[in-house]
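Go through this chain for my students:
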Amino acid sequence: MKKIIFIGLLMTGTISANAQRILDDFNLTNAVDGKQTSLSSFPTCSGLVIIFTSNSCPYDEYYKARIGKIIQTHQNNVPVILVNSLVDGNETLEQMTKKVQQTGIRVPYLADKDQVLMQKLGASKTPHAFLLKNSNGKFEVVYSGSIDDNAQVEGDVHHSYLMEAIKAMLANQQPESAEVRPVGCTIRKK
């Protein structure tokens, strides 16, 4: 019994530790304009949303409109960055650039083909969302996981985890749920 309680406490500590880490800066190519983008590109924002996505996962399509709403609602204080860490043939930087041209993506769509950012954050699915709070240029992960609780039917969403976390962060509060299991297509490691 004591072992079970200890393991439960250890797991809870691990989850909290994962949800509270400081992200080191990165430098990735943006498929929108071909330039390098990093955390230091966003010095004045209150926070930053990083969503791991792909060119071909159906779950990314399910969330397309919802991600658009997040972008529109918070574009001035909590920008959104899309990151593609998949290494399949249809996920190359060239294919990402074609997707930008076809869909009109206007937010940074970063190529993480060495999977460095994916590993730093522990991203495992597309879409997998991370909310980072900007504290004097240090970006702390305050939420990790699913965008909401119903990938396929937006009308049946009961908990908009990412939006709720953004609202809490902007109110200087901790999100009610700091980590929620992401749902989507698995990002295979190289």
User: Anything to note?
Assistant: The two ends are 40 Å apart (CA to CA).
